[in-house]
Amino acid sequence: MSSKVDETLSYEQARDELIEVVRRLEAGGSTLEESLALWERGEELAKVCRRWLEGARERLDAALAEEAEEEEGD
After folding, report:
1. 3-state SS assignment for residue 2
2. Domain ranges of the chain
3. Prediction pTM value
4. What NCBIfam families does the record tag this protein with (predicted)?
């Protein structure tokens, strides 16, 4: 479940934080508990990014459909 803070993150903010989480996980040296917390945060951030991208895809599809309808009407 996403927190209220996650809902206010821009795509770029979520992406940048996700990059940092992955970097920290790849670097190693964290305890198991810290690694699990980072992984869980990464999953939340990935969902935020996915929602933004899905929304962008829907807007693009709608714009393309509108354009196609206008072309058919001409």
Report:
1. coil
2. 4-73
3. 0.80
4. PRK00977.1-3, xseB
Cα-trace Rg, the chain? 18
Taking the C-alpha atoms of residue 70 and residue 17, their distance in angstroms, rounded to an integer, is 41
Q: Are 41 and 21 in contact (CB under 8 A)?
A: yes
Chain centroid to Cα 74, Å, comes to 38
How confident is the model over 21-53, as pLDDT tens digits?
999 999 999 999 999 999 999 999 999 999 999
Read off the DSSP letter of residue 38.
Answer: H
CB 49 within 8 A of CB 11: yes
Provide CATH code, domain 4-73.
1.10.287
